[in-house]
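User: tokens in, sequence out, please.
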């Protein structure tokens, strides 16, 4: 199959993408978080093509994307007031809510769960495609399963060229990591995945928020997880990733002692000079967490091209957007973390 590249700015793009979706095809869509691999969420056959193209395990449910908050009621029931409060403040935007699901959403999309994850993305062209198609778009991140998510059309083509009907190119994704997921079907709201909406901002609106243990911990095998995707080794480049904690000087000293030819360093812009001769790659400024989420996956992909053995990685500490970076980097590292104070 030849994958059509549709420019987001071209006047006929939204209509063409909607046609392909309604005909049961796959279209990679831009969103402010990452690119999504979209299909008509109400068409089981189309949705099964997503799993095939990505090599995604069948028990991993998809997020459905809607154009307006008012569409929530078509796909969900027993929607708590908290969902409307979150939608009012954060939609359109990088927040996904898990809610009880109506029958209209096929089991293929929800992996047979009684709940469905819903998001209203910020990217205008994508909401226009949803409006024109008149159906929600089911879309996981548009990467091969297990690879870092895609934040540019080029990355999508690298993974999926020839396997999907089209891609809508709207330039690099603003946020760079996937949406924050909150489960509102439990007694207390639960953070299943940190992302562009911080836990602090959620707490301001919800008053209460439980952080699921899968968010920052390494789950034991066979653990019961609420977001099935969290149990898979995720966001992984081909190289081994080792997170080095501690202050800049100690971490750099640790890396200097252990660095081998063919290794690389993923660090903050401010630390580049400490890693001279050690193939350093900056993913943004420590002072600007949004720069780190924006570039993390792009830099991991760039390092993937270079057949690197081990990547020594620096990770920001604390809450806010740093929380999302920690979650993604720890998963990429398979929770392999050393203290820079060690020898
Ligand atoms: O930013 C994003 O969320 C991107 C863009 C394209 O919207 N999408 C995305 O989808 O990251 P995906 O499939 O890569 O990640 C969705 C996560 C998975 O971990 C999945 O298990 C979880 O959401 N999920 C989906 N439906 C769920 C449900 N009903 N209950 C709990 N977790 C669910
Ligand atoms: Mg994904």
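Assistant: Sequence out:
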């Amino acid at each position: 199959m030849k994958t059509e590249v549709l420019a987001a700015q071209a006047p006929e793009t939204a209509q063409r993408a909607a046609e392909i979706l309604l005909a049961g095809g796959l279209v990679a869509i831009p969103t402010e978080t990452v690119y999504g691999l979209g299909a008509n969420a109400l068409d089981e056959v189309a949705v099964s093509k997503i799993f095939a193209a990505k090599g995604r395990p069948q028990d991993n449910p998809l997020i459905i994307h809607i154009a307006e908050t008012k569409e929530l009621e078509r796909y969900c029931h027993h929607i708590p007031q908290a969902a409307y409060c979150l939608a009012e403040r954060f939609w359109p935007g990088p927040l996904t809510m898990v809610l009880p699901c109506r029958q209209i959403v096929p089991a293929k999309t929800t992996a047979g769960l009684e709940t469905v994850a819903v998001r209203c993305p910020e990217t205008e062209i994508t909401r226009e495609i949803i409006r024109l198609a008149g159906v929600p778009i089911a879309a996981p991140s548009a990467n091969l399963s297990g690879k870092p998510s895609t934040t540019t059309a080029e990355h999508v083509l690298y993974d999926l060229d020839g396997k999907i009907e089209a891609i809508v190119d709207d330039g690099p994704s603003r946020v760079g990591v996937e949406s924050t997921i909150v489960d509102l079907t439990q007694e207390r709201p639960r953070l299943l995945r940190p992302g562009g909406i911080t836990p602090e901002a959620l707490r301001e609106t919800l008053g209460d928020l439980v952080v699921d243990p899968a968010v920052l911990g390494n789950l034991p095998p066979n653990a019961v997880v609420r977001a099935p995707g969290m149990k898979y080794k995720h966001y992984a480049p081909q190289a081994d990733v080792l997170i080095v904690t501690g202050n800049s000087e100690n971490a750099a000293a640790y890396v200097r002692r252990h660095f081998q030819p063919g290794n690389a360093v993923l660090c903050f812009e401010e630390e580049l000079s400490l890693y001279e001769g050690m193939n350093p790659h900056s993913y943004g400024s420590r002072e600007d967490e949004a720069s780190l989420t924006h570039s993390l996956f792009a830099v991991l992909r760039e390092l993937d091209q270079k057949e690197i053995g081990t990547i020594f990685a620096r990770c920001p500490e604390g809450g806010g957007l740093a929380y999302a970076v920690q979650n993604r980097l720890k998963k990429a590292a398979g929770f392999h973390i050393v203290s820079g104070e060690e020898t």
